[in-house]
Amino acid sequence: MASLISSLTGAAPTVYDLVVVGSGFAGSMTTLNFLQECKKLGKTGRVALIEAGKDGERCGASRWTMAYLRLDKDNKFDDAWKDEMKLVSEGLADQDYCKKMEQEVPTTVQYLIDHGVQFNHHDEKNVLLEFNTNQHFVFPEGGGHAIINKLFENITKFDNVDVMWETMAEKLLTTEDGEVCGVQVRKSDGKLKKVHGKKVMLSCGGFEGNREMLGRYVGPRTEHLELIAPGLKYNTGRGLQMALEMGAATAGSMSGMHCELVDTRATKPDAVIWGHNYGIVVNEHCKRFYDEGKRHLFATFEMIALETWRDQNQKSYFVTDSVIMDHFRPGWVYDTTDQEPEQSDTIEGLASKLGIDPDELKKTVDDYNSAINDKPFDLMKLDGKATKGLSPNKTNWANPISKPPYYGYPMKAQLTFTYGGIKCDLNSRVLATNGAPIPNLYCAGELSGLFYNEYPPATSVLRSLTFGRIAGKDAAQAL
């Protein structure tokens, strides 16, 4: 490989064994596993880790997420996730990939534990989870930032890795016969530089930070979507463009994206309002526009956010009463924002605080209350407590909003990640449009395509970490 690179450049450059683009979950896991596997095999294994962000603001969304994980009490991955993926993708999601993830996730979790990540196990007694984990999920103490910190803490113990901050990948370098042999980057001074490598991992996120690509692939009005975390501005889609220029195949829906409803008053990232199922959501005209009880909480929170962005002028309002708020607070459902909910002893007073019409909100709540059937209210199942005669009706958890004080949150949709990406095999190797692996090129994380139509949540973190881990070991063994 070094002689081939020399023939291209006219000199013998420094050649890394692996160049990793992006320092989020996938990139950091690839880097650390590659270094460790090389050490185990007695190989030098020199790595260049390239990151567009500055030291301290790195990692796209990885450092900002709460990192909820779809795991049971034994750290086993939800064995029904692949079926949910098949359902929401209408059969398009790669089932072999999903099965591989299910098999490999426990090893990934144990790896993180062995490297100092502490996990909280949560038995959920209030919210019906769509997960097949016996009402259980897991999250790291300190969220995604804690995972990134532990990975970097272990990476920096090696002296054969160079971390290049404020360095944007621009183009893949190739030999005459199409083998990837490095990355051309642009430094913070605007100058271009070639970083040569025997293998390259693309793990630099989607294209939520690129308005032109959002408009091209997702469509109009994407300019009204804010990013849910500051680091997403570095997810410019350049990794996707570089791979496509190499003839990579795509997977997942390029026109898809994942959004979440956040508190418009919040001063922190990722201030998601989860519990829309347990009240009503109205638009700026005080009209309901979505069946808040259509499915489980995690199966509907994305869709109502997309509706808020697409058709409701980026304005929606959650309204409920003390029956719900007393039940759920304190807790994760309504406490991810750093602001207290608006509160009033009357619906009209609540409307005034939310900045919407008091009379219209009162009419909507009254109409909703009078349309509810007499079935019992049961938070732990799709209870069929529904409305009749409304448009749209609410099909589950239609409990009256009648006990003051009343509570509300003003909400807007924010962009979390994009769907479409590069097609990879089960070892994270990038596949060309003819199905053959592109020599020396890997891809993992958001940049690797998988999702269509909807995102069954609490899985993206595990996917990035798992296939980054697999790629790191595979790249080291293939040297």
From TrEMBL:
Domain FAD-dependent oxidoreductase 2 FAD-binding: 17-449
Cofactor or coenzyme needed: FAD
A single MF term (Gene Ontology): oxidoreductase activity
InterPro entries: FAD-dep_OxRdtase_2_FAD-bd, FAD-oxidoreductase_2, FAD/NAD-bd_sf, Succ_DH/fumarate_Rdtase_cat_sf
Lineage: superkingdom: Eukaryota
Alphabetical keyword list: FAD, Flavoprotein, Oxidoreductase
Protein name per the record: FAD-dependent oxidoreductase 2 FAD-binding domain-containing protein
